[in-house]
Design goal:
This protein has helices at residues 15-26, 52-56, 62-65, 107-120, 168-172, 196-203, 244-249, 254-263, 268-271, 318-337, 344-355, 358-365, 369-375, 377-396, 403-434; strands at residues 5-11, 31-34, 49-51, 71-80, 85-91, 102-104, 124-126, 131-136, 142-147, 153-161, 184-193, 209-217, 225-231, 235-243, 275-285, 296-297, 300-302. With 435 residues, the protein is α/β, with parallel strands linked by helices. The strands form three sheets. Strands 1, 2, 7, 8, 9, 10, 16 and 17 form an eight-stranded mixed beta sheet that branches. Strands 5-4-12-13-14-11-15 form a seven-stranded mixed beta sheet. The N and C termini lie far apart (52 Å). The structure holds flavin-adenine dinucleotide. Flavin-adenine dinucleotide binds at residues 11-17, 34-37, 43-49, 130-131, 162-164, 169, 187, 189, 239, 282, 284, 304-306, 310, 315-319, 321.
Length: 435
């Protein structure tokens, strides 16, 4: 056992772990952060959009220092069928502001930089160290961790579990159950490299402007899932993810879906001639509010993806990770400053503070959405995208058919596919879940 004792041990150096370690170290606490990867970010996968507001709360000067790709000026939503897409774009020059709101990043580079801030703040960061087990005392309180290093038991007043979506440690220690297949998506992603000027021409960008495209529809073949295309400086990040339960239920493979997405006539020209240099697969927690496990206990708290804090509707995860990491750290620092022990009762302050933040408020708002999307995935990801695409094609095609007849045909196609009752029920279900 290592004799040195820490105020806190943070497991994982992703967004949540870095936010927690940095916040506690800045408050003068003795922090040890353990990361299994060769370096922070080496194991991490994200689209990736960085949300500046949450980052600014941790490192106010990050815009001058961090490896950022492009600031986002445009968001496109595509509802796709096999040959078309119906799009909604929002682009604004307001996003060319002095302090932009969102950026694309490459996690391997960004996490390395973020970790350097954690070290600068005074935390000890050990990479290539896997935490294998949580250590309990005779009263079942968590008092430290065991690692894969020789003499690898280390003690601390509190352990912050920031180990990501799989949460194996927490599961093994009986602090949470394994994520269910209908609560996690499996996403695959590729990085397509192209000259900077080509990316800017294809996406209509100038300078460091960036754009993201979020896509849903027949690309997921009736499964609950979405695709994304993010423009970086010299590469395009492109991927798709679907619920694990849907992959189990169908014969689809993640790579087959990605191929299908890349060959779509709206997508293929964007990546034509590119060189693929990276391929990655990762889980995303998508169960929402109802899937959140117990967040604290005797000597421990759980943050970020490990706590299933991910807003799949808005495709936000890293900001929830950073915020939950920061808030947990602030709660721990408060308990410490009162010279009180890290008991479950005292650490419940973390949950109280998180409940008051956008993290829980947003997840609560969409609490019924994951189940709705999963149960009716055929309707929302297959039937409606096809119907809407046909309706719009009918609307814009000029072929001598009187407009009234076109409208009647469109309405008839909707009723035939879903019936009046079905249409009404889908609208009610969706509105209720969105409220
Ligand atoms: C394809 C994809 C695209 C995404 N796009 C976006 C996006 O655009 N915007 C957004 O906000 N979110 C996005 N997300 C979600 C986002 O990546 C996560 O919400 C975020 O990374 C969670 O941070 P975290 O710190 O909780 O977990 P992670 O970033 O997964 O970090 C966990 C860390 O813990 C380490 N670890 C695990 N077990 C151990 C152990 N036993 N011992 C030591 N270390 C351990 C891991 O190596 C890892 O470094 C995306 C996710 C995916 C998969």
């Amino acid at each position: 056992m290592i004799e040195e004792r820490f105020d806190a041990i943070v497991v994982g150096a992703g967004m949540a772990g870095n936010a927690a370690a940095l916040t506690m170290a800045k408050r003068g606490m003795k922090v040890l952060q353990l990361e299994r990867g060769e370096y922070p970010g080496s194991k991490n996968v994200q689209g990736a959009i960085l949300y500046a507001d949450m980052m600014e709360k941790l490192v106010p000067e990050f815009r001058e220092e961090a490896p950022l790709e492009r600031h986002l000026v445009e968001q496109r939503f595509w509802m796709m069928d096999d040959r078309s897409h119906v799009g909604m774009h929002y682009r604004s020059d307001d996003f060319n502001e002095e302090r932009p709101n969102r950026y694309t990043i490459i996690r391997a580079q960004f996490d390395k930089w973020f970790s350097s801030k954690v070290r600068e703040a005074g935390a000890t960061v050990l990479c290539e160290t896997t935490v294998t087990e949580l250590v309990r005392d005779d009263r079942e309180r968590i008092v430290g961790v065991r690692t894969d290093r020789r003499d690898g038991e280390i003690r601390a007043d509190v352990v912050v579990l920031a180990e990501g979506v799989n949460g194996l440690l927490g599961t093994r220690a009986g602090l949470r159950s394994r994520p269910k297949p209908d609560n996690v998506a499996l996403a695959v992603k590729e990085m397509h490299f192209l000259p900077r000027e080509t990316i800017e021409a294809r996406f209509n960008l100038k300078g460091d402007e960036g754009v993201v495209i979020e896509a849903a529809g027949t690309i997921s073949r009736g499964m609950t899932g979405m695709g994304f295309i993010y423009a970086n400086k010299e590469c395009i990040s492109l991927g798709i993810g679907c619920l694990v339960a849907d992959f189990q239920r169908t014969a689809q493979t993640p790579y087959g879906m990605l191929d299908h997405f890349k060959q779509h006539p709206s997508v293929a020209p964007l990546i034509a001639g590119s060189e693929v240099k990276e391929y990655a697969a990762h889980l995303i927690p998508e169960g929402g509010y109802k899937a959140i496990p117990q967040l604290y206990g005797e000597g421990w708290v759980v943050v970020g993806d490990a706590a299933q804090l991910n807003n799949a509707i808005h495709r936000e995860g890293s900001n929830l990770a950073m915020t939950s990491g920061r808030i947990a750290a602030e709660a721990i620092a408060k308990v410490k400053s009162r010279r009180e022990p890290m008991t479950a009762t005292n650490l419940s302050l973390y949950k109280k503070m998180l409940d008051e933040s956008f993290v829980i408020k947003d997840l609560k708002k969409y609490k019924d959405m994951p189940m709705l999307m999963h149960t009716y995935s055929q309707n929302f990801f297959l039937t409606y995208p096809q119907l809407i695409s046909k309706a719009l094609q009918n609307f814009v095609r000029v072929d001598g058919t009187p407009k009234v007849e076109k409208e009647k045909a469109t309405l008839k196609s909707f009723v035939k596919a879903r019936s009046w009752t079905g249409l009404f029920a889908d609208a009610c279900r969706f509105t209720r879940a969105w409220r």
